[in-house]
Amino acid sequence: MEKIDRYRQYIKEVIARHSIPSSYGDAEVQQIFDTERDHYQLVHTGWFELERMYGCIAHLDIKDGRIWIQYDGTETGIADELAELGVPKEDIILAYHPPYKRPYSGFGPDKQKK
């Protein structure tokens, strides 16, 4: 369980780094942490003039003891940031890539090695 708690903290830290206030209109950046089900998101929401703004910046889950990056809209790349914090690359799944490409990403495939 210690590993999962550490991963939760790393995810929160990385999301906090990308929580930059919007420079457009009346928009806010929201950090969404569901630590009970291990779902984490960073979204922006609000208004720019007469246009509604809403979008996901990042979405991560912890499943089967590994971090699944469902969406990464950052410039730097969340996977690399997590690896720099000490998460083994085999524990980071780039879920936004099709399963057949994941083994070539340098990060974990979607199934545990037996």
Describe this structure in words.
The protein has 114 residues and is an alpha+beta fold. It has two helices and five strands; from the N terminus they run αββββαβ. It has helices at 2-17, 78-85, and strands spanning 26-34, 39-48, 51-63, 66-72, 92-94.
Percent range for β-strand residues: 35-45%
CATH class: Alpha Beta
- The tally of domains stands at 1
Query: Helix count?
Result: 2
Give me the CATH fold name.
Answer: TATA-Binding Protein
Write the layout of secondary structure elements.
Blueprint: H1 2-17, E1 26-34, E2 39-48, E3 51-63, E4 66-72, H2 78-85, E5 92-94
Parallel strand pairs: 4-5
Antiparallel strand pairs: 1-2, 2-3, 3-4
